[in-house]
Structure formats: C-alpha cells, structure tokens
Amino acid sequence: MLTDSLHTGIINTAGKSRPFQNLLHKGEREIIKKRDKAVRVRCISGLLWITQEGDIRDIILKPGDEFTITNRGVALISSLDDSEYSSSLH
Description:
Elements: H1 5-8, E1 11-13, E2 16-18, E3 20-24, E4 29-34, E5 39-45, E6 48-52, E7 59-61, E8 66-69, E9 73-79, E10 83-89
C-alpha cells in the first residue's frame, strides 16, 4: 500500500492540523511528500522504519518514539511489524 500522507493523512480544520492515525501491516509502506511544514511521526505500536530523501540515516521507531521529517522531498515510512502511528504538521 503506497499512499501520499499529505493528501490523505493530515486533517486540517480551521487552519490547524490535528494528528492522523494510520495502521500499516507488516511490509506495507506509506509515502510522505514533504513540502513547507515539518511532519511529525509518532509510533503508537509496532516497529517503523523511516528514510527520507537527502538523508543517509535509517530511522527506527518503536512505540512511544517520534521523529520529525524536516527534509524537503519524499520520505518513506515502512512497517517492520503490524504498526500504528500518528502524523501531524508542525
């Protein structure tokens, strides 16, 4: 499953964004196209692997961990286990 979070995953009401929760099954991925604002990803359950364009690091999130995607371009969230996470603009 490949989706664009900033089109389907961030809810914007009255100029304020609120976290969006998503479930990914093991092996599924989601693409985030980063634009002007940073995107904060928080792992609720499972295990997530985040890579982002222009960054050689591999980011692994376990429950309670969060990471803010700041690089402009594309980031990929991959689920290493059945996982739930939230994302929000900052």
